[in-house]
Amino acid sequence: MRGGGGGMMDDGGVEHAQIPNSFGHELRACLRCRLVKTYDQFRENGCENCPFLDMDKDRDNVVSCTTANFTGIISLMDPNRSWAARWLRIGRFIPGCYTLAVSEELPEEYQVKTACLHSCKNCDATL
Ligand SMILES: [Zn+2]
């Protein structure tokens, strides 16, 4: 018996992020959640934790919201229970590959978008 507690394995939802299918120089990390995927994966599917960054809709967003400038990769299969995830403060993100540190920040225009999303969900119309 594994799991227990009646956990459902629902293939319909996003259970975990895509795992990078290559570890070359095209790897990039999301500046907001530090998820690591290839440029192509971000461009095609966006960031699973940050869909509002619209990376899958505009590749300029991929360039702006991700960086190739990061250090170390950690693979998280169970962020809820991982001490490393808590330490990195990514425990509420979905399982996937994450970087330990990025040296850049999310551009201000995207930070506003993110902050807005958290503080007021209805302000899109008034902006
Ligand atoms: Zn992200």
TrEMBL record:
A single MF term (Gene Ontology): zinc ion binding
GO CC, alphabetical: DSIF complex
Keyword 4Fe-4S: no
Gene3D superfamilies given in the database record: 3.30.40.210
Domain Spt4/RpoE2 zinc finger: 27-103
Record has Cell inner membrane as a keyword: no
Top-level taxon: Eukaryota
GO biological process: regulation of DNA-templated transcription; transcription elongation-coupled chromatin remodeling
Keywords carried by this UniProt record: Metal-binding, Nucleus, Transcription, Zinc, Zinc-finger
Matches recorded under InterPro entries: RPABC4/Spt4, Spt4, Spt4/RpoE2_Znf, Spt4_sf
Signal peptide limits: none
Places the protein is found: Nucleus
Biological function: May regulate transcription elongation by RNA polymerase II. May enhance transcriptional pausing at sites proximal to the promoter, which may in turn facilitate the assembly of an elongation competent RNA polymerase II complex.
Family: Belongs to the SPT4 family.
Protein name: Spt4/RpoE2 zinc finger domain-containing protein
Organism: Aegilops tauschii subsp. strangulata (Goatgrass)
